Amino acid sequence: MGRQCGVGRRAEPGVAVGYERLPREYRMRRSRKHAFLWVIAFGTLSLALPLWTADDLPSSFRYPFLIAWVALMGWLFHATLRCRTAVDIKAIHVRGMAKRRRLAWEDIQDIRAELNPASAVQSGAANVLVHAYGRDGSKVLLPFVDDLHVNVERELELLVGAWEELRGETWAPDPQAAFLIDRRDARQAALMMGFAAVMLAFIPLTVLMLLPLFMDLPEWLASALTPLMVMGVGAPLIFVLAATASYRSRRSGSGG
Questions:
Q1: Which of 184, 185, 183, 193 has its CA nearest to residue 240?
Q2: CA 69 to chain centre
Q3: Are 143 and 94 in contact (CB under 8 A)?
């Protein structure tokens, strides 16, 4: 899983190795800060104006709700601006909205660029994200190391190069961490496969649900093709079967 590399390798003359380009910091772009602020401001005004002018709402509800909403949006904007990824010769420092994480180079098991599943349904989301994997099997998102803010290929090469140089001569992949990471990846892939299967099955399930309206079916079959049975039981069943099959396939393929 970890990339093997000779520690202490010599760089080509005139070419800086990964750690020589540190420290490095990744934050939200100024243009995206402004866009984010406008979205929050517009959303707050869209909510506040109807509440402010609603005569049927008591003041005991209206004012506390507006104050709480403005406070929440203010915290969201402030916390998002504080998010960052900082990289130095000691570790990768990740500051999220609610917690901080320090990943020492010797504890990192891998650094990967991965497709962002949310980009398929969320407009403006990054298509490629970068994660670091810890010795405990944790998967840590590196904020703003994505294709919206940086050249991912270039920055990933820099981070991996620094990791290979700074992780120490005694570094070796941790088998337990590899097992935990593979299991986590299998679970995430299983969830995505389950959701994809339900989306693909939506039209066929809808057709099944509508069949009793257009065809004369046996009573037992018509009673089984009710919306509750088709969507309430059929869709979850498809999700479970697809997710389970995906998880078992990946785990057996990885020897787990």
A1: 193
A2: 26
A3: yes
Burial class (CB in 10 A: 0-12, 13-18, 19+), 88: middle
Calculate helix-pair angle for 235-253, 175-214, nearest 10 degrees: 150
- Count CB-CB contacts under 10 A for residue 227: 11
DSSP state of 105: G
**Closest by CA position to 105, among listed 165, 158, 17:** 165
pLDDT in tens, the chain (256 residues): 434 333 333 344 444 555 678 889 999 988 888 888 888 888 888 888 887 777 777 777 878 888 888 888 888 888 888 899 999 999 999 998 888 999 999 999 999 998 887 776 677 788 999 999 998 888 899 999 999 999 999 999 999 999 999 998 899 888 888 888 888 878 888 888 888 888 888 888 888 888 888 788 788 887 888 888 888 888 999 999 998 988 888 777 665 5
Q: Which two tokens stand for residue 41?
A: 């401001």
131 CB-near residues (< 8 Å, 6+ apart): 111, 112, 114, 139, 140, 141, 142
Phi and psi at residue 170, in whole multiples of 5°? Answer: -95, 5
* Total residue count of the chain as it appears in this document: 256
In what side-by-side order are the strands of the sheet with 100-104? 24-26, 84-87, 91-95, 100-104
The DSSP result for 163-231, as a single string, is: HHHHS-TT----HHHHHHHHHHHHHHHHHHHHHHHHHHHHHHHHHHHHHHHHS---HHHHHHTSHHHII
